[in-house]
Amino acid sequence: MSKQLTRGNTGSLHKVKKNLDHLKYKSRKLGEHINNIVINETVEEKKAYEKALRRYTDKMNAVLAKDEIKDKLEEKYKCEEEIYTIFDKVKKTYTKAVKTIMNQPLSKKEKEVKINKLQNKIQNALINDEDKKILSIIKEQMSNLPYNNIRMLC
Predict the structure, then answer these.
(1) Does 138 have pLDDT greater than 90?
(2) Nearest-CA neighbor of 94 among 67, 74, 116?
(3) DSSP code per residue over 100-131
(4) Which of 48-57, 62-71, 75-84, 124-133 has the lowest mean pLDDT?
(5) Which helix (H) or strand (E) holds 144?
(6) How many helical (H) and strand (E) elements, i.e. helices and strands, does the chain have?
(7) DSSP element (H, E) containing 150
(8) How far apart are CA 112 and CA 97, in angstroms?
(9) Which ranges of the sequence are coiled-coil (predicted)?
(10) 15 DSSP assignment
(11) 59-81 burial, b for 16+ CB within 10 Å, e for fewer?
């Protein structure tokens, strides 16, 4: 077929296009037929699934509507807001500290050492062992990227 195509034989191209169109049509029709068979042969199972899903959703909504759960959710949201506030303050303080270090009359290497020590202090104070493992993996993966000049607070 490649010799025919290189010669510019439009008749061959027309046959190929016609064959492709036929195969695409046949594939689409077969897919529709398979889909119809699956739908028709799983009607009862689908109804049972939908009924079970409705029951589950209704039960879950009833549980979530309880005052006890609402109170716990509110408390959880407050904790998350406080966590965000704390990390925001740490980030701002860290940024100020880095600027201060960068303005000191030190060599580039000394500045890097001080910033790394600061990062380690923050990490040791705020991050648990599990999160440290995750951050370590992220750092390792980022070091493999072509643009590894990205600095992280870790």
Answers:
(1) no
(2) 116
(3) HHHTSS--HHHHHHHHHHHHHHHHHHH--HHH
(4) 124-133
(5) none
(6) 6, 0
(7) none
(8) 13
(9) 39-66
(10) H
(11) eeeeeeeeeeeeeeeeeeeeeee
Q: Which residue has the tokens 């191209």?
A: 13
List, in order, residues 6 or more apart from 142 with CB less than 8 Å away: 148, 150, 152
The model scores a pTM over 0.70: no
Phi, psi angles (nearest 5°) of residue 42: -125, 25
The C-alpha atoms of residue 127 and residue 41 are separated, in whole angstroms, by: 53
Higher pLDDT, 54 or 140: 54
Query: Distance from CA of residue 99 to its chain's centroid?
Result: 32
Alpha carbon of 84 to those of 78, 80, 87: distances in Å? 10, 6, 5
